[in-house]
């Protein structure tokens, strides 16, 4: 039995890509071979009452500037040692620090540090700290080849230490969607039968560049007066983006839905899915669009080319280029056959390449190799 401690800063409702993906891994690891633990820097009482996928340990560190944090870090190391944890896998900034140090203090067999973005959360001090901690890491896990290359360049990690496993799509994602679901959600959006619906699912943060989507929407809206533009997601930029939509003259055509837990149903109402990010590692939104049978228009950033086959499953555009994005959206709207073909290709590709069983089998084999230390280089 291999015991794995997944260490992460917080575990909010599963709307972020990392948290949804980690939930899938914890849920689907075969319990006859693996015993997972979820270790949190902080957690609410409500979460502790509702989470039941595996045992939970709360480290209790909110800042490394508090002296008591180090006694809690030592207590966490004692927990790892007492439970005879084999693998510690860290996510996010603070858990990287706590998990790597505690794992080494506890003498665990392997420490895995994940990279699921390309450093846009880190300041200069944090990048320096990570470089100091990286030699203590057994293996790095990236969710795209592009992020592996970024890690090698930015953090000077040896390429052979970085392993790539893409994110997966739930087997049942959108499987119940049908014509009735599409009609239901299009009514909610105020879309008539001949209203094209172009949507984006993204947290409303600067890195997602939703303003680029809105500027493209203005151009498309002039050509397609009945088009509706939908933004699914929440974040501190919502007010600013709503004001931008008003300034661009498209507020009445733009629907801000906030955070939704019924994204698969909403996608059934879309005609095109869009990603406008300035940077990404591996976009769950793109995979979900494609699994729902949508043609996509995506910025060519990070691992987008590992998801989208340009011209076959979707169309790629440069980041920060709303005019080009608008031209690609308009091309799809004016060519129903192209839209249908790309959507069908996208569905087949997503369901095959990012199949849940296939990806989770890669994780199981990765952990098996780690537990046996077979073929993983050490520093």
Question: Can I get a quick summary?
Answer:
This protein is of the alpha/beta class. The protein has helices at residues 17-28, 45-50, 68-82, 93-106, 124-133, 145-155, 179-189, 210-223, 238-248, 263-267, 284-291, 304-307, 322-334, 336-353, 356-372; strands at residues 2-8, 34-40, 56-58, 87-90, 110-115, 139-142, 162-164, 197-201, 228-232, 254-258, 272-275, 296-299, 314-317.
Characteristic key phrases:
Rossmann fold; 6-stranded parallel beta sheet; alpha/beta; 379 residues; 7-stranded parallel beta sheet; 15 helices; disordered C terminus; 2 domains
Structural description of this entry:
With 379 residues, this protein is α/β, with parallel strands linked by helices. The protein folds into 2 domains: 2-168 and 356-372, 3-Layer(aba) Sandwich (Rossmann fold), CATH 3.40.50; 179-353, 3-Layer(aba) Sandwich (Rossmann fold). 45% of the residues lie in helices and 16% in strands. It has 15 helices and 13 strands. Strands 3-2-1-4-5-6-7 form a 7-stranded parallel β-sheet. Helix 5 links the parallel strand 5 and strand 6. The two termini are 26 Å apart.
Count of folded domains: 2
Q: Count of helical segments?
A: 15
The end-to-end span amounts to 26 Å
> How do the SSEs run, as a string of H and E?
EHEHEHEHEHEHEHEHEHEHEHEHEHHH
Shape: elongated
Number of strands: 13
Sheet with most strands: 7 strands, parallel
Spans of at least 5 consecutive residues whose pLDDT stays below 50 are 374-379
Mean pLDDT: 91
Sequence of strands across the biggest β-sheet:
3-2-1-4-5-6-7
Helix content: 40-55%
Radius of gyration: 22 Å
CATH top level class name of the largest domain: Alpha Beta
Q: What percentage of amino acids are in beta strands? A: 15-25%
Q: What name goes with the CATH superfamily of the largest domain?
A: Glycogen Phosphorylase B
Structural class: alpha/beta
């Amino acid at each position: 039995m291999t015991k794995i401690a997944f260490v992460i800063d917080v575990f909010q409702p599963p709307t972020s890509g990392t948290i949804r993906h980690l939930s899938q891994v914890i849920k689907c690891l075969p319990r006859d071979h693996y015993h997972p633990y979820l270790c949190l820097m902080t957690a609410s009482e409500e979460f502790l009452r509702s989470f039941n996928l595996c045992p939970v340990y709360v480290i209790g560190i909110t800042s490394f500037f508090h002296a008591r944090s180090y006694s809690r870090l030592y207590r966490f190391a004692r927990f790892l040692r007492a439970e005879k944890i084999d693998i510690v896998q860290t996510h996010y900034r603070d858990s990287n620090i706590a998990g790597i140090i505690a794992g080494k203090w506890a003498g665990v067999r392997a420490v895995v540090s994940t990279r699921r973005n390309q450093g846009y959360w880190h300041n200069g001090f944090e990048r320096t700290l990570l470089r100091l901690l990286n030699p203590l890491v057994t293996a790095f896990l990236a969710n795209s080849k592009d992020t592996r290359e970024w890690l090698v360049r930015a953090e000077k990690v040896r390429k052979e230490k970085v392993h790539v496993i893409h994110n997966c799509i739930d087997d049942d994602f959108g499987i119940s969607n049908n014509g009735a679901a599409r009609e239901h959600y299009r009514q909610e959006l105020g879309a008539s039968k001949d209203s094209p619906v172009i949507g984006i699912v993204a947290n409303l943060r600067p890195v997602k560049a939703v303003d680029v989507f809105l500027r493209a929407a203005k151009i498309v809206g002039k050509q397609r007066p009945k088009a509706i533009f939908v933004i699914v997601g929440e974040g501190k930029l919502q007010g600013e983006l709503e004001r931008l939509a008003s300034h661009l003259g498209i507020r009445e055509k733009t629907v801000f839905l906030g955070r939704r837990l019924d994204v698969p149903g909403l996608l059934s109402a879309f005609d095109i899915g869009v990603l406008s990010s300035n940077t990404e590692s591996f976009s769950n939104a793109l995979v979900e669009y494609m699994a729902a049978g949508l043609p996509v228009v995506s910025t060519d950033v990070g691992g987008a080319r590992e998801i989208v086959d340009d011209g076959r499953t979707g169309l790629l555009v440069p980041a920060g280029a709303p005019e080009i994005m608008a031209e690609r959206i308009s091309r799809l709207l004016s060519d129903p056959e192209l839209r249908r073909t790309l959507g069908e290709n996208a569905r087949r590709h997503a369901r095959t390449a990012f199949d849940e069983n296939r990806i989770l089998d890669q994780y199981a084999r990765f952990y098996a190799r780690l537990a046996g230390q077979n073929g993983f280089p050490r520093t």
